[in-house]
Design a protein that fits this description.
Length: 397
Amino acid sequence: MRSVDKSVKELLSGEGKNIPLFKVFMPESILEPLGKVLMSGYIGEGPRVEEFEHQLGELWFDNNNVLAVNNGTAALQLALRLAGVGHNDEVISTAMTCSATNEPIMAMGAKIIWADIDPWTANIDPEDVARKITPKTKAIMCVHWGGYPCDLDELNAIAAKHKIKLIEDACHSFGSTYQGKPIGSHSDFACFSFQAIKHMTTIDGGALVCKSEADCEKGRLLRWYGIDRKSKRKDLRCEADIIEYGYKFHMNDVTATIGLEQLKYVADTIKKHQANATIYNEAFSDLKTVRPLRYKDNRRSAYWLYTMRVKDRCKFMEHMKKMGITVSQVHARNDMHTMFKDFRAELPGVDEFISEQISIPVGWWLTDEDLTTIVNAVVEYDHSCCATIQEISNPSS
């Protein structure tokens, strides 16, 4: 057991000595309600799931068409199914994301059409999306990189013009806002993740938020084999005719109980992420070789990630490692994976972004001392690089 614990610490934060990039938030107050559910005799999809959906809709999404599911990937695949995506259809997506965004497209038998990104936000470029629409396009998949919302007005306008669906991969962006409204209230579908290291966790879990009540009701059937759990039955569900095949994507009362307790704390968690990001934005605004991404004032990121563009990234990573700070690219471009080889395309925005992007710790766990250490380390790197550049430009005689 000790060897397992040690390997986890090495993976996350240099044997627990470094400032970690991610950390699980789990309040002790969760133990009492969780114990009651575990001993209740009912641990499947039940009243706690329904309450979790209700609170998410009322408090966080401004939209009550919420389906709690067993993970964010399931939410994405269910959204694709509800969007009518099938064999040989096309879905326009971004390569700059976790592979979990795009593998569900392949699971539906559809083809991925990569759109380029804005290299200063990592979000999908609406102009390139518009250029790549064809008669086979059934949906657009956008990802809010690190929590920063995409250009949803432009993307929804494109989707409406072509009568296709916009699916938001919002797995980074619980608590983000666009035009003053929460992510989850803008598009046909928004998919959230409550995986271990997100702003809040249900151990594993997710949610699909639908604009249409009809889509939500259909999704409620499809997430549990196509069976209507709410209809009156004489003998459980034995005599029910299943009209359309479904999945085992539902959440259970155990994970929903964890989610309900997490919801009591998540607003403060997000505020800490955002406050730490504000400190970074101010401290790094005038640096030359380390540059924050460029965000607009009409939307606010929940800052699951704080991503920067850095000259000589390998050197930067070595510097931060020496300073005891864990940094990472977090996600690799999807289009280079062998499984996506049939869909490759020229993506200059992705090329530019991926050559420099790196994320530093920004989360709720950072102390004032940690923040000072990180800021000083980044500034020191920039000054060192600038001095080296100046030496090269003006060598002594």
